[in-house]
Amino acid sequence: xxxxxxxxxxxxxxxxxxxxxxxxxxxxxxxxxxxxxxxxxxxxxxxxxxxxxxxxxxxxxxxxxxxxxxxxxxxxxxxxxxxx
Length: 84
Hints:
A three-stranded antiparallel β-sheet has the order 1-4-5. With 84 residues, the chain is α+β, with helices and mostly antiparallel strands. The protein has one domain. 15% of the residues lie in helices and 36% in strands. The longest helix has 9 residues, at 48-56.
């Protein structure tokens, strides 16, 4: 898998966006990212606290990808053990 970050900055949103981490509507400040992942250009927005939670989560699992809205707002990723 390859990842190339093109842009990553805090912005003030002027229109409605959904947080890719928690799926809730973002109002006010957000983290905007533009990147290339496995050859595909992508952009997303996150609440600032969701971006921090993603940054503090185990990146080994994040490389496998996640569904938009899969996690709770501002909470680090919690992964189910497949051995159980």
